[in-house]
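To: structure subgroup
Subject: Chain for Friday's discussion

All,

I'm putting the inputs and outputs inline so they're searchable in the archive.
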Amino acid sequence: MVNSWPGGYQAEVTVRTSGQAPLSGWTVRWTPPPGHGIAQVWNGALARNGAEVVVRDAGWNAVVQPGRTADFGFLVRTPDRTAPPPESPDGLTCE
């Protein structure tokens, strides 16, 4: 989490490869808590699969070299203006 305010928060995800070969194309998936809506994504392409949020590379950041990273950020609206954001999304997976 980068920042938070009543009714929302900003988060950032870092994608990195753990191997010796470049990661060519990446996708991150998670299911946000009920009522948490993704308002905006940057440095990635947003899609939805039911309740699941899917963010894919933006094309220009598709290849992650060993020792390097690709970051994307997003804004979330929360249903309860006093609800704290999650520490990290449950079930976060990267492909």
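Points worth raising on Friday:
Residues 19 and 90 are 24 Å apart (CA to CA).
The chain has a mean pLDDT of 87.

D.
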